[in-house]
UniProtKB/TrEMBL annotation:
Belongs to the UppP family. The lineage of its organism: Bacteria, Bacillati, Bacillota, Bacilli, Bacillales. It catalyses: di-trans,octa-cis-undecaprenyl diphosphate + H2O = di-trans,octa-cis-undecaprenyl phosphate + phosphate + H(+). GO terms for biological process: cell wall organization; peptidoglycan biosynthetic process; regulation of cell shape; response to antibiotic. It is a multi-pass membrane protein. HAMAP family: Undec_diphosphatase (MF_01006). It comes from Paenibacillus crassostreae. The gene is uppP. The chain crosses the membrane at residues 48-71, 92-109, 121-139, 159-175, 195-216, 228-249, 255-276. Pfam families: BacA. Bacitracin is thought to be involved in the inhibition of peptidoglycan synthesis by sequestering undecaprenyl diphosphate, thereby reducing the pool of lipid carrier available. Its EC number is 3.6.1.27. This is Undecaprenyl-diphosphatase.
Amino acid sequence: MDIITAIILGIVEGITEFIPVSSTGHMILTSKLMGHNDQSDVMKTFEIVIQLGAILAIAIVYWKRLLNLLGFDRKKTTSIQGMQQSSKKLDLIHVILGIAPALIVAFFARDFIKSLFSANTVVWSLVVGGLFMIFAEWFNKTKVTITSHELDDITYKQAFLIGIYQIISVLWPGFSRSGSTISGGMLSGVSYKASADFSFLIAIPIMCAAAGYELLDSYRYFNSETIGVFIVGFLVSFVVAYFVVLAFMKLIQRISLTHFAIYRFILAAVFWIFILN
């Protein structure tokens, strides 16, 4: 791997990690088109590093919310009885409920999940995931009463249901973690924007846990030959992910899940042509 490769893959990771288009599919396709079929431990470690760059970007975007969840900088309001209560309803229990199901499944089924990974699996996940997103958007608009319009409106039950839907992305490589959680939120009566906010927020602990666990086996690949490339990939992924998330949240009312679904279908076709044929 060279610096140019690190920059390109860092850009791809930053763009695709948090929007519902499957970062896994994009990384495989990009590597193939660049002539890189390297599945070495060094390459796998690099992918973990650039994921951490994207995670840091999300943490900075949501730094105020993270402080609130940890009990810092929490705004107070006064109730009728004169007792101070938090104006923020979302708490750590919501986050735990949102990540626990996927973490438990990932921990106990790690080897099984890795055995499922293949180009065929990713192609089908792009298509099925796109159909799932279209259905979720239709259901949210026509069949369900939206009870949670903002992030702080999300209930414990809804947080847990989103966590259950997130299991799909754990068991099906390429399905898209954000696609499953945003769609799951919309199927559970959460608005599109609030579902996206919650999806991004719970990405921080679950991706940190997953990346940290993988690094326990990969830390030895940090050396004088790789550290420069790792740093470049990390920084590029961080910067790109930061601006992509900000742009997505500003344009969320204009870009529906159906738009992302159509893009996934196109990507699946490209994937089929260049990877499977």
